Amino acid sequence: MNTIFFPEYYTTVTKVDNARPWHYSYSMGKLFSKEGKISSYPLFFTKFMNNAGEQIARQPFSLASVLETSAMAQEFAASVGLILSMAQGDEIHIEQRLLQDEILDTIYDPEFTVYSAAAHHVANSFKLTDTLEAYRICAILSRFVLNFPGEMFRNINGNMIYGEDNVFSKGFEIAFYNKDRGVLFYFIVALLSKRYEGKAVTSNNVQKLLIEQLSQLGTNYDELIAEVDIKIRYLAQKLADLKVQYLEDLAKSAVANHEKLGLFGRSIYPFDELKMPGVLLGDDTFFSPTGSKDDSISDRYLALDYFSDHIFSFSDACVSSL
Fold first, then answer.
1. What percent of the chain has pLDDT over 70?
2. Cα 221 vs. chain centroid, distance in angstroms?
3. C-alpha to C-alpha distance for 43 and 61, rounded to whole angstroms
4. Where are the domains of the chain?
């Protein structure tokens, strides 16, 4: 659970002038073990700097970076759609400009780099100036990374970007052994940037380009599709076997949504066509996209919260070695 974000210890923010544009560099460190010693587990960082070369922030490239950027992509897409549907005439240009300012404020906020690290990586690697386009690409690649079967990580050659005897290459190999999906996202963007240098990589062609490079990930499209399909049904059955109605419904929805969406994500998800669970809104009202009524959402939340508390308590009781 902790490795989804990595503890706050590894994220640093420095109180310096953060005037735009930022400069960036990539580095790699290693996690501490439970004994407080340096482990072999690699941490890939994006370091953001101002024009004077002073560090503004250092953000681990975690799975959370991928998840949050995907969520941000949908939020920005929804905002654009709302503007186009409601604004008229010159209002559209004004609202779009305000939205663009809001997006820039978000991606250049040192406190929010977990929400922007993946988008920065995409924009810098593919030389994009359109921030929304960078987020659209993130939305497409993020689902692929989440769908990538854990068993296939062992097929990836971590040396193909920087060559053998490179510290990053060795880090890739260890990260893939541990099925690190945040590092896989970083690796795929770097791979596409290298293979298609000088060619525009866009939200319209990134899926096709990645399919062309699947052999570099030790697989092919047909094999990957088949394996992912087996995996989603296996996991759905595991949930259904728990004989909890909500989890059974969730499993069925997951399979149905997978059949509609497939291996890759979308720059804009068709939420109205998906089987979405109900949610409890900030004003304590229940909303269901399908119009269903559900009074058990609070009970489900409390049950899961109780369960997660016990997981973390058990984790604290464990020692990593004897």
1. 96
2. 21
3. 7
4. 2-276
